[in-house]
Amino acid sequence: MTRVLTTEPELSQFAGSVRAMIAAHSPVDATRAGAGAPMDPAWWQTWAAEMDLPGLLVGEADGGAGAELDAAAIAATELGAGLVPGPLTSTMLAGLALSRAGASKAAGRIAAGTAPAALVLADAHDLTAGEQVSGTIPTLDHAADLAVVVAVIGNRLAVLETGTATVTPVEHPLDETRRAGRMTFAGADAKFFDITAELATELVVAATVLAAAEQFGLMRHALAESVEYLNARTAFGRVVGSFQGLKHQLAELACEVAQADALLADAVAAAMNRDADAELAAVAAWCRIAAAGTHVVSECLRLHGGIGYTWEHDAHLWFRRARHNQSARGRLVVQRQRLAELLGLG
């Protein structure tokens, strides 16, 4: 669990509730079976009705749960660990943006579970806006299932109905459980809401933190599964996990997970406290966790031996999801450049 869970019993209980929901409504077997298929609206409504997850960050006045970023980070961690498909995290972010910008009607749709959505930051699209919006948003998760896209364009939020866009599916996506696609708008009508520079930065921080949380949940889960597997398997009359070489390897991976835990907790705390260096903490966490998560998952796949390379095992799903997550906030080199800027390194 992330360190933020240890400070509030209510948050720990919330994490358990999310895990129970995943087990009941989104087990990995169901994710496998539904790969490539449209999202079931009833599945989405279940998450809205039983957990308020789509509207978790929507203000209470707009019909949402009014939760803070720590709860959203916990939810994203569990969703990552459970390999849950669908745009739950992106919808939470869109709801936050709309609620904070005063777009109460659109935020209420998200909280009611009727509008799967995505928040797209300025560095992830080439949209231009006058009275209307044109341009392309690349590789949105479950693009064909979204109802609303909230895009940051300059000092405004543009709320776009996805029915006005042309959606082009990505053929053979790396993570087939996420049905990536490109969305193109050509002179689409939009509703615009002015935002401050402070809110724009807050949205960048929140999106970066939740991307890091999802990757952290995945790497933590992969390591736990690997430890369980190695302690159950025997070779030459001994438990494989007792071999010194594997112990050392697992210890090194555990150190990477612990480091990710600390960085994520620091980023969440900085964001919630509105610290001046909140973006620095978030980008630093993301840069480290994005790369470390892919490395940990890759090593865990190998630790499973031959079975880890088969389609029947979940290890390849971990690897694909980790690689997909790594691109969630754009190319890692761009984020590292941003980290250098925030550190004053030019």
TrEMBL record:
Q: Does the keyword Flavoprotein apply?
A: yes
Cite the Acyl-CoA dehydrogenase/oxidase C-terminal domain residue spans from the record. Answer: 210-341
Lineage top rank: taxon:
Bacteria
Enumerate the spans annotated as Acyl-CoA dehydrogenase/oxidase N-terminal domain.
Answer: 9-103
Q: Which cofactor does it need?
A: FAD
Q: Which InterPro entries match?
A: AcylCo_DH-like_C, AcylCo_DH/oxidase_C, AcylCoA_DH/ox_N, AcylCoA_DH/ox_N_sf, AcylCoA_DH/oxidase_NM_dom_sf
Q: Which UniProt keywords apply?
A: FAD, Flavoprotein, Oxidoreductase
Q: Which Pfam families match?
A: Acyl-CoA_dh_1 (PF00441), Acyl-CoA_dh_N (PF02771)
Q: Which SUPFAM superfamilies match?
A: Acyl-CoA dehydrogenase C-terminal domain-like, Acyl-CoA dehydrogenase NM domain-like
As for family, the record states:
Belongs to the acyl-CoA dehydrogenase family.
PANTHER family linked to this entry: ACYL-COA DEHYDROGENASE, ACYL-COA DEHYDROGENASE FADE28
Any idea what this protein is called?
Acyl-CoA dehydrogenase
Starting at the broadest rank, the lineage of the source organism is: Bacteria, Bacillati, Actinomycetota, Actinomycetes, Mycobacteriales
Q: Which gene encodes it?
A: acd
